[in-house]
Structures are given as C-alpha cells and as structure tokens.
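My current task is to audit a protein record that another person submitted. My question to you is simply how this chain folds and whether the tokens agree. This is what I was given:
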Amino acid sequence: MVPKPRPEVNLSFDEYVDVLYGIVEQCAENVCQSDEACALSGNDVATASAHKREIGVWQVVLLSAMKLWNSSGRFKDKTKVAIENEMISRVVSGQGLSGDEAEAFRSSYFDAATRLAKGDEQGKMSDEQRYAVQVIALMRAALSAGYDGAEDALNAATEKSSMRVLDMERMVVHLAQSSVVDGNTALMKRPRFFVAQ
C-alpha cells in the first residue's frame, strides 16, 4: 500500500514569519496576561516596571523560539538569520520600541542568545536540561522586574510561565519539522517554505 502524500502549502517568507510570529505572540501574551504575572504587578507597580517585565518576557519567548526553530540544523544559517532578524523587527515594532529602546532590546537579545548558545558549567546536565534551566532563569529575571513581594508568587509565576514557554516550544519545533525551504528560492535572502499541513 502506497502512503498518501501529505498536503503542503507553499508560504512566502513573510507568510511563514507570520505563522512563527503568531506562535510567539500568543505565548508572550498568555504569559503577560496570566493571573500569576498579573499578581506580580499589583496596584502599586509603576507602568515602567510593567513595561520592562513585558519586554523581558517577549525577549525570553523569542529567544526560546529561535533557539529551537533550527535546533535540528535543517535550515542554513542565512535562513535562520533572516527569520531571526525579521522576528526581532516585528517584536520591536509590535511593542512600540523606538530608538534607544529598540537598540537596547536587540543588544540584550543577542547577549542572551550568546549566553544560551555557550551555556555554562552546571554539573553533569544534558544540553537540553542546561538550556531549560537557563530559560527558566531568564524568565524569572524578566518577571521579577520591579517586583519586591513574596518569593512564592514569583516562583508560581515563573513555573506557570515556563510551562507556557514549553508548550510554545513544542509548536515551534513541530512547525520547523514540518517545513522545508522551497528549492527554487533556496538561494534568495527571503526564501519560500513548503509546510506540511
């Protein structure tokens, strides 16, 4: 018996980024609007601290998505860089960052990405465990911006937020595994993608 071919869609670069950005955006919004994250804000937290927390969450979610999107190495570096740059641009414009804020976000993003890629010595952990610990630490740091309350609330928010990021990571990995660059556009800066439905 011959297996039936899976239907595919051919997406332009922008359409593909729309799909990936939608996954990231949903996760970041779920984290920022969760009861646990809102409990950290309280009534007395300044708007600047809440904005800083939101930007930090977006950064962690984007870092996690981009690290896992090409974890299998199936896409060329130039394709990953093009996707990553477009995703960063969309987060910057979506969050209304401009000038120094936008540059600070980009700089902080690439510093954190370098640390995640390099890792640090944490005993005999596997790469996946070390990565998970680092993402949880980054999420905790993002959520703690301007927060000086009880540790229990911060721990609960970090745990729930990390679970949401884990769910998002599964979707990103599934998207990447279901995707292949259209061979006719592989040499272009912004290639098209075939995505299995």
Notes: The helical segments are 13-32, 35-41, 47-69, 77-94, 100-118, 127-143, 151-177. The chain has a mean pLDDT of 84. The chain is about 65% helix and 5% strand. The first strand starts at residue 8 and ends at 11.
